[in-house]
């Protein structure tokens, strides 16, 4: 199995829809650190799982310096964003998002609960 990992920093703003009082319901921003894990049993004709530049382009063009609520049609929690990012990138099986110091969310497509 071949594995690659791409780490990105995404600056973006969002607000969460929550059924309880929270500062996160207000418009605010983060510099998310996003780690994208891809894997494949085979390599493409160029000898890659996926080009790192393609991963960056797919995600940065949609999310960097964006109002995330305008990009996605769901509550943009770190957990939801991790899954959404995983679904955008070919061969992606896991995404870890560090929203702020000490706050991380992970989505792993291969894990069974």
Describe the secondary-structure layout:
Blueprint: E1 2-14, E2 28-40, H1 52-63, E3 66-67, H2 68-71, H3 78-88, E4 92-100, E5 103-108
Parallel strand pairs: 1-3
Antiparallel strand pairs: 1-2, 2-4, 4-5
The helix-and-strand class reads: alpha+beta
Strand order of the largest sheet: 3-1-2-4-5
Q: Shape from CA axes?
A: elongated
CATH architecture level-2 label? 2-Layer Sandwich
Run of helices and strands: EEHEHHEE
Helix content: 10-25%
- The fraction of residues in strands falls at 35-45%
Walk me through what this model shows.
It is a single chain. With 113 residues, this protein is of the alpha+beta class. The chain has a single domain, classed as 6-pyruvoyl tetrahydropterin synthase/QueD (Tetrahydropterin Synthase, Chain A, 2-Layer Sandwich). It has three helices and five strands, in the order ββαβααββ. The chain has a five-stranded mixed beta sheet. The longest helix has 12 residues, at 52-63. The radius of gyration is 15 Å and the shape is elongated. It starts with a strand and ends in a 5-residue tail after the last strand. The mean pLDDT is 96.
Give me some keywords for this one.
five-stranded mixed beta sheet, alpha+beta, 113 residues, Tetrahydropterin Synthase, Chain A, 3 helices
In short:
This protein has 113 residues and is of the alpha+beta class. The protein has helices at 52-63, 68-71, 78-88; strands spanning 2-14, 28-40, 66-67, 92-100, 103-108. It has one domain (2-108): 6-pyruvoyl tetrahydropterin synthase/QueD (Tetrahydropterin Synthase, Chain A).
